[in-house]
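Why run this: before we spend reagent on co-expression, it is cheaper to look at a predicted model of the complex and decide which construct boundaries make sense. The entries below are exactly what would go into the expression plan.
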Amino acid sequence: MSGPTGPAAPDCGRGRDGDSGRDRVWNAGLQPERTALSWRRTGLALLGGSLLLARVLAEVSVPLALTVGALGLLASIAILVAVERRYRSHHLRLTAAGGQRVTLAGGALPLLVAATTVVLGCVAAIAAILLSLRVS
Amino acid sequence: MSDTPRRFPAALFARGQEPDPRFTLANERTFLSWIGAALALIAAGVALEALGLGLTSGLRIAASMLLIAAGIATPVQAWLGWYCTELALREGRPLPAPFLVAPLALVVVAAGVLVALGVLLR
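The model came back. Tokens follow.
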């Protein structure tokens, strides 16, 4: 076993030169990071959900499945890109201000994600009705 | 603040003052949890129809429609909950309770009962 001066001792971000604060996390509870991961999880769930829905719809109508799949893919990628931009902007604003009365991003992306989920649900309802007609 | 960027919805951000950023971020994660619940409900409803599972067809369709309807209503709770909570944080008021919890629980129980009956009566 190697001691504390062993070759594999990680520096854990202590040795960054020109410490501007930007390379450090804003908050020890990693709040922006946990929020960003939660957003990313939701974006990936929307992506997976719309592709799964397209796969199920392919049993009924291939053109419909391709349309739903393509639209779901585009919307999910747009949301995932917006999520990364949102985290970057939050991190920069929070580390710059030291956490005092910071203006964070607003409700446009939440409303877009909620609306996308409602649309996905409506398409899912149509898919379920078409499937039930086919089975019986 | 003069350099405050315009944010949507303007009616919300015109009121009160900026809360602790940690509270705003926690409110966002609660919103995202509701969206996750909505996606799970929708997926369950579609899975019932896609897999069939040999359930009585009328009960299966009813359970599927109930789950998907709940999945369509849940994002409304997610958005209104986010809005009302953010407003309460800005104005320093007590946080609002989610309004769709009891109906949603009833719907999930009803869907479970329908699936159970569908299994028993097949």
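The longest helix of chain B spans residues 57-91. Residues 20-96 of chain B form one domain. Bring this page to Monday's planning discussion.
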